[in-house]
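Quick check before the chapter quiz. The format below is the same one you will see on the exam, so make sure you can read both the input and the output lines.
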Amino acid sequence: MAGDAKKGLWCRLGEVREVFHSVKERLVDRINEGFYRYTLFVYDFPCWFIWVPVLMALLMGVGILNRTEEYAPMKLYALPDSQAMKDQARLTELFGTMPRVTYLLVEGIDGQNLLQPHILRALNHLDRQVANLTVTVDGETYGYEDPRYESVCVKDGTGRCEHESVVQLYPPKNESKTYYGRNYEVDFNMSLYYPYHFQTRLDSNWSRNDSSIIRWPVPLLAANVTLEPEGCSVATETTIGGCKVKAAEALLFRWLLRREGSDDFWDPVLLAWEQAWLDLMWEQMPVFEEIGVRLVRNARRSIDDELEESTRLGLLDYARYVIGGIIIFSYCAIVNFSTTPHRSKSLPALFGCFAALWAVMFSAGLYHSLGFVHVPTIAATPFLVMGIGVDDMFVIFNSYALAVKVTDPRERVAVAIKDCGISITITTLTNLIAIGVGASSDLLSIRNFCIITFLALLMGYFYALTFFLASVCLDAKREAAGKGPYLETWCNTCRKRRRSSAPTPAQKLAQPPPPPAAEEHHDPEQPQPDSTTEPEQEQEHHSVSISASHPSTPSRTSSPPPAALDTFELAALQLKAQELTIRQRRASTTSTTSTTSSSRQHGCSSGGFFGVHLGYEDGWDEARDGPMADVEEPVGTVGRKVRWAFRRFWGRWVTIPAVKVVTLLLFAGYIAVSVWGVTRMTTGLDLLWLTPEDSYYRVFWSRYFTSFTSYGEDVFVVFPNRQEWWKKEVREEYMAYEDRLRSGGYASDQVFSGMYEFY
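Here is the expected output.
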């Protein structure tokens, strides 16, 4: 009983499979018939399918004028609902926007000591220039530490700007004075203690009245230091009177810019001051190089400027676009050129390239009209759409070439699109699904790229079956017109519409059989043309459609005319004819009996692990099946030599078991390497690697991490909830937590905390 139930289940599954297969076949037939009838319609009205799509692209392209650009790194490359963005929003809510930090890295060329008095005086002069640096925005002047103007700096409790530099570690001359003034002299002959150096900091009036004693962390300001006395250990000498800094090869300056008030108000002011600061550093670079000092700059706006520089299209980028387009257009025109002029397809190939460009223009106009912003990744969309559009063009050309036995140009184009239309549709749907999935990404740079690429690929499919197909129809008319001036015959076909009188395949079947007529006798002894000889030996043929098999002697009975070979039938018969030729060549070196026996046993293959194995039995048997049908492509057909090469070499090699094994092993190795690469992937994106390779921003961080190896990025620990800081136990608990942070393996001991310092 169980066995009968199992058999019944398998039978029902088999019936379902048969029904599914039948439905699928009917659906495919209907789709193919739809492509066939659609192509006939395009053939009858080709010019409408050329200028109407062009007009659509031009009108929709006006939407590009609404283009707005987005280059902010946090908007482009950060997940809006990520924990980092949530923490940033909470930090801004509690403390406002964080200050903007401007860095200057000072390096001694060839390891020069930077703590020499003449170098320190030059750096102090530069520091004063920055303090007096002003900018004018909307008629108002702003400075850094100039009391005459509103300051852009962050100020501490003493009213001084938050600024850190080595020159501040040195005391003013004549320490007995009370008031010094802004341009007071500094004593650079003093020694710095390591790792902490205590120094008096003057108040906002440059006097000692409200001055304060600051414990400066020297390792954050000087790197590659040489300590004295010789053998001094920082681990044991951490107080005044311990280790002293004898020399330093790198120094770091920091300026903090404020972020109070409205961002809309302060953004242009701070950006202008940072730009003035960058320009000042650029001007001072050659001056300091003369004394053996290298300046490396980095402002808060640097990352935005450099990312925009690397992603915004400039004159050079547009030149690359033009050069790339010329290369693609030239390639398509050359590959589809034929030495037989009336069979050349260079002009419709250019139409295929323009079809992709019209698709890009239409999709870009629609994209910006819908209000989407331009992101840097969109710059790759034209090349992607061009590549896929050109691929569809070559598929259509290949099907058109294989429909060579269809003599009527109208039906030939229809048969070609009928054979390749569904394959183009499936590949387009596959691309659209893949790109559509990417459009659901939370990253703005990826989402917007996928949206516009989805539209462009969809329109590329539309323009391939309208604008480009119409050009193929016109060229088919020109080719059928025969030899003549290329452009003249092409234009003549566009000016005049001609409906072919050739019946469709369905009409052919419905036609009554023609009356018997005398047919041309074929001499059975006359050798048939060798259809698989090398392309250089092939001759041009203008024969009409011939069936796959017909009797060797003419029939005296009336019968319908044979149907023309479609592209798949022609390719299959070309392969059989090729194997027949190979068998005939082998027969010239071996006995006929031995060859026939081997052929009957192994078909057209030589058998064995290193032999060719084809999917059918013997080659063509003239005695049994009649003469070989004329499956030879005419000389001058575009792609004829390439198809012959693939059919003659790789098409046969891939049936050899040894080649199959090697191919599978190579693919397995490729999969293994890919899996290994996936396991090596790490999450996260460092914006540093998105900047140009010669970016001063990249140079700064590269040199910074080379010199200041003990310290990385700044991090913040925030206590967002209300705390009872006035209680002693709360403060002690907090300081104990800070001590644990200091002793952690990933944190430096230079943890800044105002509460820890004051309590």
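If your answer matched, good. The first strand starts at residue 100 and ends at 108.
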